[in-house]
Write a structure and sequence with these properties.
The protein folds into 3 domains: 5-53, Uridine Diphospho-n-acetylenolpyruvylglucosamine Reductase, domain 2, CATH 3.30.43; 55-115 and 163-220, Uridine Diphospho-n-acetylenolpyruvylglucosamine Reductase, domain 3, CATH 3.30.465.10; 224-329, Enolase-like, domain 1. It contains 12 helices and 12 strands. It has helices at 12-20, 34-39, 76-80, 83-88, 90-97, 102-107, 110-114, 121-124, 167-173, 275-281, 288-298, 310-329; strands spanning 5-7, 25-28, 47-50, 60-61, 67-71, 177-182, 185-190, 213-220, 228-233, 244-253, 256-265, 272-273. The strands form 3 sheets. A 5-stranded antiparallel β-sheet has the order 4-5-8-6-7. A 4-stranded antiparallel β-sheet has the order 9-10-11-12. Helix 5 packs antiparallel against helix 9, helix 10 runs antiparallel to helix 11 and helix 11 (288-298) crosses helix 12 (310-329). The longest helix has 20 residues, at 310-329. The structure holds iron/sulfur cluster. Iron/sulfur cluster (SF4) binds at residues 118, 120, 122-123, 131-133, 140-142, 159-161, 202.
Length: 330
Amino acid sequence: MRSFTYAKPASAADAVRALAAAPEGRFLAGGTTLYDLMKLDVERPGALVDVTALPQMASVDASSPTEITFGALARMADAAEDPILRRDYPALTEGLEKAASQQLRNMATLGGNILQRTRCPYFRGGEPYACNKRAPGSGCAAIGGLDRGHAVLGGSDACIAVYPGDWAVALAAFDATVDVLGPNGARSIPMDALHREPGSTPAVETNLAHDELVLRIRVPKTPLGRASTYHKVRDRESYAFALASAAVAVRLEGGTVREARIALGGLATRPWRAREAEADLVGRPLNAETARAAGDAALRGARAGRHNGFKIELGVRTVADALLIAGTRA
Ligand code: SF4
């Protein structure tokens, strides 16, 4: 049992101050990732700053004409059950529904969900295994090891761990923005710039400072949302992480694609926006052939390891299937 201090501030500013004073500390919200990792002795925070009492951070607000705002402390279940979201952004609803069990959705917060850490078994397995993310400089047991679930896009010689989340992938497709508060004030980060590729520093997973707190997530309102889907392929149909997933949205005019969004999950080291594939699709009809070509473009540059080569073709088909599903909603 490792000891830690515990604080439950009443304001976001106090929470940020508390964590700024605790370099080994962590913010605590739903706890569904952090408690797991503490029990595995992978996370060893010297201080927990519980943010669950902070006011005005738990709502989903669709009243603005220009954006939907998700408080960082809203539970996944609250957002998944929102009827406006289900009607106007099925990809966001599906990204939540397919992300976890109902029990977990009842506990996990949206802010914590987008910051969840990799499920790489060598990372979670602890000290017997080399892992540059857990212990920088120790190596990577997955490279040359069991890499069936690992990334084919965005990896490096230091780490090939997949970003495990679903909802952040759908948020990336819709150009969401994350508002954060730190000791030097508030700032906004495009969702697409929140997560980092591992490069030579896989332990640094996001562009958030240690003491920056996610306040809310904003999604621009767009008619694209209604013709969208989050398509997730996994080893079993529920309560499993993606082997490949795609959040897509399309706008069609007379059967021709005028606008497209494609983001990949389960395949890359971060939520992966496939902008070249989107551009290739614009001006073309949406059918099995063009959807397949968009999948090929989305997976261009993918690199397989020992056991995960199947994910490249799976990713292509996942994108293609997702586009055809979204097309039926356009
Ligand atoms: Fe660690 Fe990344 Fe290698 Fe997994 S893939 S063992 S998380 S360095």
